[in-house]
Amino acid sequence: MTKIFSMTGFAAVQAKYDETEVTCEIRSVNSRYLEISVKLPRVLADLENQIKEFVRGKISRGKVMYSLNFSSLTSELQNLKIDPSTVRTYMNLLEQMQSAAGLDAPIKLDHLLFFKDIISFEEESKIDESLTDFIRELTEQALDKLNEMRSLEGENLRSDLENRLEKIAQLAGEVAELGKDSPRVEFDKMYQRLMTMLGNNEIDRTRLEQELAIISDKVDITEETVRMKSHIQLFRDNLQAGSPLGKKLNFILQEMHREANTMSNKTTIIEISHRVVSMKEDIEKLREQVQNIE
Asked: What would the DSSP string read from start to end of the chain?
């Protein structure tokens, strides 16, 4: 039996890189398509596309939120640099301000840090290959852990779906059995109504019998019950096939709901109507559950 995956999950893994604690977190929630958002330190922005490819290799559907956090970043890792000439310029400016204001307090480093452009980012710096390999491995670990959780939830969903599907199959079988006599029941109802309306007047029952074929087309639900049985089996087969199957199951359930509606519209037999109502309730519950399957 192939695994099925829920679209909902969370995973976090940690490891050290050059004495720096690095945390990779991945969250996934329901989505009609695969949506990937990546949050990285600015210096690692060039890795965004690679990370998205890693995710696509493991996940086919859902909204995935990826983040990579460092407990601290060295200047080498951040690719930061200081422009000495800019520092001197601001230092001279501060000394002039000090003199103009007649202040004796010393100028401190904190004062210089107010000027944001004394520290700049080295855009052209390349990401170290060992760091790239480290992030790739950490990402794969997080994705594997996420899929373990998604698979566990997926198996719980499979069990619930199978139980509800079995109930629908049972109800469909009962409806099919009850529906065998539906045309005759409808005919007898019509005959009794006419008898009541006409009193003792004679009714050509032979002529009414000819109308039975017309009534059959309107009230016979055999075709709907056969198609319902086929949809149920197709649903079961796809559950065994495994993910990705959420969209396909949702389509099958739409067809099942359509057949149930047709049954409901055709019959006036209360025993059938009650069972069809229960079928529709369980089909709707299945549709809610399927929204969470990849």
From this structure: -----BS-EEEEEEEEETTEEEEEEEEEE--SSEEEEEE--GGGGGGHHHHHHHHHHH-SSEEEEEEEEES---HHHHTEEE-HHHHHHHHHHHHHHHHHHT--SPP-HHHHTT-GGGEEE-TTPPPPHHHHHHHHHHHHHHHHHHHHHHHHHHHHHHHHHHHHHHHHHHHHHHHHHHHTTHHHHHHHHHHHHHHHHHTTS---HHHHHHHHHHHHHHH--HHHHHHHHHHHHHHHHHHHH-SS-HHHHHHHHHHHHHHHHHHHHH---HHHHHHHHHHHHHHHHHHHHHTTB-
